[in-house]
Design the sequence.
C-alpha cells in the first residue's frame, strides 16, 4: 500500500517503455486538493534537471503531485533537459486538471541520455487514467531501477497514517542515478511545518545511508501531507505533532534499512555509531568515513575485525580527534581502548574470536567513542563484495 | 642498487623473523658522517610510534640513518610502542657508533601488534655487520610487506646521483600499514634546503597517489644527502640545485608509478589531470575525488567510460565548481562538454566506442577542466577489481 496507505492520495505505475526490460517505469502520485509538500535534495553540485525544477516549485510553495520516470536520469543533459522536465510536468498538470506549477518530477536512470519525450508524453494519459487509491504498490514497483525488491513502509499515529516508498541500490547504480524517497501522510500540516518534519525526521536518517560514498545527481526525498484524516492542522509543540513525527521517523527508518539491505552487493549491513565528538556534525563525518572506508568495507565482507582499519579511518576523517581518547567496540567487544589495541587481542585468548563473531553477522554494530564531547552521529553502510565490483564493473552500456 | 646508487651510503637487509613467511624483514640505511636528512610524514591523526620518533628527531636537526622493520607497524600500541621505538634506535646507534639521536625508524606491518623486541634487538648486530655500499637491493627487498616486486629507481644529475626505494600496495594493505619511501643523493645539501627539495619534488608526487583513499598510520618519505659526490654545498637558485631537483623528481615519479602498478588488485592505472580550478588545492581535491570514487574505479575495471560517474564525482568533491563549465576527456575523446554529455554519445556514432577504447588500456588518461581558473592538480589511482576485494576481504588474521 506504501504511499496510498494514508487517505487523500492516489497513485499509479505503468510501462511507458523507458526501460528496455519492459518492466513498469512511469509512476504518478497525487494528493487531494490542499495537499502540502516538503522536499530534500541532493547536495551534489551537478544536479539533474528534475531536481532543479522540483526544488524551485517547492520553494514557490505549491506542490501536490509528482511524476517519476525510471530509465533516464535527465542529468548532464543541458538546457534540453530543463525544457523536457518542464514540458513533462506541464502536460501532466493539464491531464490532472491542476495548476501547471504543482507537479514535481523525479527521474532516475542513465546520466546524460535525453528523456524520450515522445514515449513520455504519449504515456501520460494512460498514467493519469490508472490513478487509484490502491495504486501504492504499482507506484513502488515503477520507480525501481536495478533494485531487486520494492521498498514500502507504513506507520500509524493517533488518528493519522504515514506511508512511504523508496528506490536506490547505489547512490549511482550501474550508470543509473539516484535514491528517491516518497513519504505521505493524511495529517494536515502547513508547508513550513512539513519541511521541518522532513528536516528533523527524514534528513538525518537518509543522510546516514551510504552504499558507496557517492552522491547522486538526482537524490530526492519528498514528503506530502493530504490533510484527509483530520480536520485540524497539526501544530508544533502538540502531542499530535510528536505522534506524527514518530510515525514519519518510523517509515523513514524502515525505508533506510530496506535500501541498505538491497544495496549493491551488500551482504552485511554496517551500523556505525559515534559518540563523544565535539559536535553532531563531527560525529556524523567520522561515522561516514568509517562506513565508506574500502578497507573497513572489505573487512566486513571477509568477516575479519581488523580494528587497525577502523582506527585508520577515524584518524583520517578530517575531524580533529585525540588518538589516545579513541575507543572502538565491535558488538560488545572492545577492540580499541584509549587508542590502543589491547595486547590480548593478539594473544589468542578469545578477544579476537569474540570480535570476529561480531564482524560475521548480517548486521555489524561498530560503536566508536572519540572523547568526552556531546556530539553523536551514525552511518549505515554495507560491505564491499565481489558482487559490488561485478554489478558496477561488468556492466557496460 | 636503489638507495646505495649515490656515494656515501651503505645499506643492508636481513631476516630477523618479524614475518612468518621467513622473507627478509629488517633493513638499515646509513649515510657517511655529515649526511643531512629531510622527511614527510602521514597526515593521519593516528600516527605510529616510529613516525612520532622520526619526526621529532628530524625536527631536532640530526639524522643520518634509518632502521626499517617489516611485519609490525607499531601503531596503536600506546606508550609501550614509544618505548620500543626509542630502545630500538638507541641500540642501533650504539652498534653503529653514532650519536643516539641520529637514527630514525620506520615500521610497517600489523597495526596494534607490539614490536617483537627480543628478535629485533637480537638481530641488530647482524644487520649492522651486513652493511655494504652495494646493499641497496637487499634494503629494497627487506622493506616490502605484501608488495609483489621491489620498487627501485635511480637518476643522474650533473656530477651527482640520486637513488630510491619504496614499498606499499595499499595505504593500508591487508592489515598491514604503510607507504615507505627512501631517496638518497650524494649531493651536499644543508637541512632546510633538503626539506625544501622533499616538499617541492616528492610531496606533490606521493600525495597524488591513491590506491584506496586510505591514509596509513605509518606513511613516511625520507630524503638523505651524503655530500660524498661534491665538495661544495648545493645552494638554491643555482643550476646545480635545478639539476638535483630534477633528478630527485625523476626518482620520485618512477617510484610513484611502480607503487600504483603494484597496488592491490590494480590492473588499470588511472591518471587524473584537473585544470581550470580556482587553486591547485581545489584541483588536487577534485582529482583525488575522481580517482577515489568506487564507481569510477569499477568503471575502469570494466572498461566502461561512464562519463556520468566522473561528473558525479566532480560535483560531490566538496569543491565549488560551476557544473555548466565542466569538460571531461577520456584520452582524446570529449565525453562531457559544458556539463553536458554530447547526445552523440548515446547515438552510437562512434563517440562511445572511442571513449571505451580510452577506458580499456593499461593507463587511463582522464582530463577534466572545471572553468577558467589557474589551478591545476592531478591524482594517480587504480581500478577497483575482484582482486582488491579478495586481497582485503579474504585475508583473515
Sequence:
Amino acid at each position: 500500500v506504501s504511499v496510498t496507505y494514508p487517505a487523500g492520495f492516489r497513485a499509479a505505475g505503468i510501462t511507458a517503455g523507458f526501460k528496455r526490460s519492459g518492466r513498469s517505469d512511469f509512476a504518478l502520485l497525487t494528493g487531494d486538493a490542499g495537499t502540502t509538500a516538503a522536499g530534500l535534495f541532493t547536495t551534489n553540485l551537478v544536479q539533474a534537471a528534475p531536481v532543479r525544477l522540483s526544488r524551485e516549485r517547492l520553494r514557490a510553495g505549491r506542490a501536490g503531485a509528482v511524476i517519476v520516470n525510471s530509465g533516464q536520469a535527465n542529468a548532464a543533459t543541458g538546457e534540453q533537459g530543463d525544457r523536457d522536465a518542464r514540458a513533462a510536468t506541464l502536460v501532466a498538470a493539464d491531464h490532472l486538471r491542476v495548476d501547471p506549477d504543482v507537479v514535481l518530477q523525479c527521474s532516475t536512470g542513465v546520466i546524460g541520455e535525453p528523456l524520450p519525450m515522445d514515449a513520455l508524453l504519449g504515456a501520460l494519459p494512460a498514467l493519469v487514467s490508472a490513478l487509484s487509491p490502491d495504486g501504492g504498490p504499482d507506484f513502488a514497483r515503477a520507480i525501481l531501477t536495478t533494485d531487486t525488491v520494492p521498498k514500502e513502509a507504513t506507520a500509524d499515529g493517533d488518528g493519522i497514517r504515514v506511508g512511504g516508498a523508496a528506490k536506490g541500490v547505489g547512490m549511482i547504480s550501474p550508470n543509473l542515478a539516484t535514491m528517491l524517497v516518497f513519504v505521505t501522510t493524511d495529517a494536515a500540516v502547513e508547508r513550513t511545518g512539513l519541511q521541518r518534519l522532513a528536516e528533523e525526521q527524514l534528513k538525518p536518517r537518509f543522510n546516514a545511508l551510504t552504499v558507496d560514498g557517492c552522491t547522486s545527481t538526482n537524490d530526492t526525498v519528498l514528503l506530502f501531507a493530504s490533510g484527509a484524516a483530520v480536520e485540524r492542522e497539526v501544530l508544533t509543540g502538540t502531542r499530535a505533532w510528536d505522534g506524527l513525527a514518530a510515525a514519519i521517523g518510523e517509515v523513514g527508518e524502515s525505508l533506510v534499512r530496506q535500501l541498505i539491505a538491497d544495496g549493491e552487493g551488500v551482504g552485511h549491513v554496517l551500523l556505525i555509531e559515534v559518540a563523544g565528538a565535539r559536535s553532531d556534525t563531527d560525529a556524523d563525518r567520522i561515522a561516514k568515513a568509517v562506513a565508506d572506508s574500502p578497507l573497513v568495507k572489505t573487512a566486513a565482507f571477509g568477516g575479519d575485525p581488523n580494528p587497525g582499519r577502523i582506527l585508520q579511518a577515524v584518524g583520517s576523517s578530517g575531524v580533529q580527534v585525540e588518538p589516545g581518547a579513541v575507543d572502538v567496540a565491535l558488538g560488545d567487544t572492545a577492540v580499541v581502548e584509549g587508542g590502543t589495541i589491547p595486547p590480548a587481542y593478539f594473544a589468542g585468548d578469545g578477544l579476537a574470536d569474540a570480535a570476529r563473531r561480531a564482524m560475521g553477522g548480517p548486521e555489524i554494530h561498530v560503536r566508536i567513542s572519540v572523547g568526552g564531547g556531546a556530539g553523536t552521529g551514525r552511518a549505515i553502510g554495507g560491505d564491499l563484495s565481489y558482487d559490488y565490483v561485478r554489478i558496477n564493473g561488468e556492466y557496460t552500456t
